[in-house]
Amino acid sequence: MQTIAPQLLGMALFFAFSKWLPKADFGLMGWCTATAYLLATLAGFGLEQVVFRRLAAGSGKSNWAAKAFWIHNLATTVLALLVLLALAAFSAAPKLRLLPFFFAAQAILSLATPFRLLLNARLQYGSYALATLTANAAKLLAAYLTHTTGNLTLPVAAVILISGNAVEYVLAWLVSRKHQSGSVKGKAYRLLLREAVPQYLTVIFDVSLARLDWFLLGMLATTASVAEYSFAYRAFEVEKLPTAIVGSLFLPIAARWWTGDKKPSPDRQKAFSVLLFLIPALMGWASLMVVALWQPLVGGVLKSEFGNASFLPLAILNLAMVLQFSINLLWVQTFAARQFRTIAKITAATALLSLLLNLVLIPNLATAGAALSLVAASFFQFACYARCARRLELHLPWRRLLFVFGVQISGICAFIFLKIPLPAGLAGVFAGYPLLMWLGGIFAPQHRKTLAGLKQ
What is the pLDDT of residue 370? Predict the structure, then answer.
């Protein structure tokens, strides 16, 4: 409710803006949104996870940390907003003139984050879910009404985002009031910042991986390229939503495996091995369905110009779908084994590689270059986590993993280069793929019994 439903409503709003705004304006909005997200995340200083850990373990005694986080967000986002307003005042560039408004929308969400952490730490997930669902539905309704009256422009879209996020903030503040307690002392706040420093380095590189390509496209290519890529990337993000579900379900199990100096037993390792190729295989199947149906569904049924314009970056991004789920599962094991320094190094190296690839490929290939940079960075990140898993003495099912990678990547390349007709493509996706997975021993009935070892 709190993660998936708002994402789906957010995707619906994003699609509505892509239909109702001119392509150049939509691309400009995508660049401003991505840049605002980058700046707001950097302003947070990596405090979110540190504060949540304190709140969850403190039974009410650590509520001051949420207040400290709120004060920190207020100070840093106001300072950043003043800098952006100063830049906008002395610049004629539309990007810089609009950026303060989109940053203000993101800053309001940052201010609501401490309230969400307070509620989640007390296991009151539904309260914030209701707030965010109401706010996202209000934004979608406001966009529709302004479009039907002919008043929807890019500045109006920014006002809609600011107003909707303000609704979410107020509702979150109201439902979390009884948990808002404790005074903030300067020494305690400084200790909180010191604790967040290692996490902040990881956050910087994580956010770079998530939005740096959008930012560089806006700087090195055209706003039309940003529009096409942002549309494809948002769809790719929705496809990856099961990653969050699988990770949240598996992390507590993996944490129990690595309690003390213990290592997973052979039965548990076998169960993890099955999970490591079975989940990516299922998501590889889903990614092939998306690529096969993208142009007929988005361009045909939904009549969006991005059905064809964003097909190539979407298809290339989906080459990394299997890798994304494999990386997520390996990250969970690495995190549960408390290899935090290793995670930071891998994230930093991957982000730097992504930056270099984007700088080289975007000027030459535009959206395809940004997508290829993500795929190449994902291969590198997977190799790093696989090497870490080997050091942790985890068994990786290489033969089956490579089989899944090969089938999924070959299928997507066929859609990109061979222009397969829809009937033949659907037959291959819905019948050929599962048949190959069954022949390769991936979709085997006995794996269900093996997965029972995950909970042992």
Answer: 92
Q: What is the pTM of this model?
A: 0.81
Instruction: Categorise residue 77: left if φ over 0, alpha if ψ from -120 to 50, beta otherwise.
Output: alpha
Determine contact, residues 397/273, Cβ cutoff 8 Å.
Answer: yes
- Tokens 């699988």 sit at which residue? 246
365 part of a folded domain: yes
For residues 196 and 231, state if they share a domain.
no
Together in a domain, 164 and 288: no
Note whether 265 and 139 are same-domain residues: no
Tell me the C-alpha distance between 12 and 115, whole Å. Answer: 25
Q: Which residue do the tokens 């200790």 mark?
A: 191
Residue 45, domain extent = 4-200
What's the CA gap between 96 and 248, in Å, rounded?
38
Q: Which are the contacts of 56, defined by CB distance < 8 A and separation ≥ 6?
A: 120, 121
206: in domain: no
Mean pLDDT (10-residue bins), the chain, 456 residues: 73 90 91 90 83 69 82 93 93 88 95 86 77 91 94 94 94 84 74 76 72 83 88 88 76 74 76 86 92 89 85 94 90 83 87 91 92 94 93 89 93 89 87 92 81 63
Q: Is the dihedral of CA 225, 15, 247, 275 positive or negative?
A: negative
Asked whether residue 216 is domain-assigned, the answer is no
Tell me, yes or no, whether 212 lies in a domain: no
Q: Are residues 320 and 280 in the same domain?
A: yes
Q: What total of structural domains would you count in the chain?
A: 2
Closest-CA residue to 55 (of 39, 45, 66, 43)? 66
Query: Are 314 and 229 in the same domain?
Result: yes
